Structures are given as structure tokens and as C-alpha cells.
């Protein structure tokens, strides 16, 4: 990009920030105004941001992490990465309670796939959970999901828009803490990516999420979707495993508590497992 194009992109970002405070660049006369920029430049910048990693460092990180992964983590890693590069789609749910290494697995898969020059979209259901992720975003922000979600809701992304380019080009989508939101969020994403992927050679109308490889993660024993004044039946009906998407889902389990296994004896680990049971 030329210096002028970089300047215009910068002014557009500043103007966007000012809009969130009810201001524009016009309110500050010494500042130049942004002019129209070729949409391909915006697309290029968005894609570049998701590829702005050192591939050699990532490859080493992936190798080092894989060497210390548990058999369960290695099995999940192999299963998901194989699905990514077979271009046959895949819908997975990694089920494990706290400290079983879900974040470790996310980072391992991301490092491996990004080291090959491909894009991984990494989101979480809550802002707090997203702080643990690189290039952190909430799912609602990334996929423009409505806050007041219903069965008929769709993501606010048009198939030919700039926001559609990242999901289209992404090799893997990871969504953490998934039981915390309504199943309608995943169904809205299914409809959205189905529309976006129609022009892709890997699109299949028989596969969920437009044939993309999507990995969900979480623990159904933790906080479920909150329905004000909702009954137990309402809450259960709103969970992911009540969705039509669940029948496509391959469940991968992580059971070993990584935090408690560090620096403990075999007898301590046995006692911990018995206590957990």
C-alpha cells in the first residue's frame, strides 16, 4: 500500500472510533477528512491482520506443545487438523471441565494451522473468556450476532461484505465457552456461513456451518445460558445439545486435570481423581 492509502485507512479508523462517542472528524477542523478507499484494500488489511504471525516461531511452538500434550489432547488435535486439511468439513465439541487443557489445545491447533499460513478465527461467548485468546473477540462481535436472539435470527453479515471475507477464508473457527449462550446463536451462524460459503468449492448443503471446520468447547456443568424467570425446561431447551446441529457434532473429551497433575505424586493424583468422582 502507498503512504496515502495507509493514511486514509488510519483516518477511517479514527473516524470510526469518534463515531462511537458521537463525534466525527468534521468536529475537529484541523484534521483532514477520510476519502473513499478501494474495498480490496480494506479486505487485504483485515486478512493481513489475521496472518500477522511469525510462521517459524509458531511451528516451533506447535512442535514443543505437541510434545507435552496428553493422549486426549493429541487425539483431538489430530482429528481436528486432519478435518481442516481434508476439506470435508467438521463440527466438533471439546468437552472438559476446568483445567483439562482446552485453552492449551486451542493454542496448539492455532499455532499449527497459522504456521502453514492459514487463518484461524478464535472467539469466546463472553468478554472475560475472550481475554485468554489471541486476537481476542467475542462471538457476537465477530459474527454480528443479535443480543436478543430468537429462532428466526440471522447474523448481520451480508455474503458479499467485508465481514464475510474472514469466515470465508478461515480454515478453522474455534468458539470457547459455548454452553453459555443460546443454541439460536449457533443456528444463526449456521445460516450465515451457509450463505457465505455457497460460492466456495468446499461448500456442501449437507454439512453444518457451510462445510467449515468449527470447534466448540466448554463444560455443561458450568454456567448455562441464563433465561430470566425461565424454567429448567426452558434452559435445557436453549442449550446446544438441544439444537438440530448437535446430531452433526463429534464430541471429544478431555478428562485429565492438568493443573493438579503438575508436581504431584501418583498417590495424590489417585486421591484427586477419587475426590473428583
Description:
- With 277 residues, this protein is α/β, with parallel strands linked by helices.
- The protein folds into 2 domains: 3-37, no CATH class; 66-260, 3-Layer(aba) Sandwich (Rossmann fold).
- The chain is 44% helix and 11% strand.
- It contains 12 helices and 6 strands.
- It has helices at residues 3-19, 39-50, 55-68, 71-86, 102-114, 127-130, 139-143, 165-169, 183-196, 232-238, 258-261, 266-276, and strands at 90-95, 119-124, 137-138, 170-176, 213-218, 250-253.
- Strands 3-2-4-5-1-6 form a 6-stranded parallel sheet.
- Helix 3 packs antiparallel against helix 5 (102-114) and helix 4 packs parallel to helix 5.
- It is globular, with a radius of gyration of 21 Å.
- 30% of the residues are buried.
- Keywords: ATP-binding, DNA damage, DNA recombination, DNA repair, Helicase, Hydrolase, Nucleotide-binding.
Key phrases:
277 residues; alpha/beta; Rossmann fold; 2 domains; six-stranded parallel beta sheet; 12 helices; 6 strands; globular
Largest sheet: 6 strands, parallel
The string of secondary-structure elements, in order, is: HHHHEHEHEHHEHEHEHH
Number of helical regions: 12
Low-pLDDT ranges? none
InterPro entries: DNA_helicase_pif1-like_DEAD (IPR010285), P-loop_NTPase (IPR027417)
GO biological process, one term: telomere maintenance
EC number: 5.6.2.3
Keywords: ATP-binding, DNA damage, DNA recombination, DNA repair, Helicase, Hydrolase, Nucleotide-binding
Explain briefly what this protein structure is.
This protein is an alpha/beta fold.
Please give the structural blueprint:
Elements: H1 3-19, H2 39-50, H3 55-68, H4 71-86, E1 90-95, H5 102-114, E2 119-124, H6 127-130, E3 137-138, H7 139-143, H8 165-169, E4 170-176, H9 183-196, E5 213-218, H10 232-238, E6 250-253, H11 258-261, H12 266-276
Parallel strand pairs: 1-5, 1-6, 2-3, 2-4, 4-5
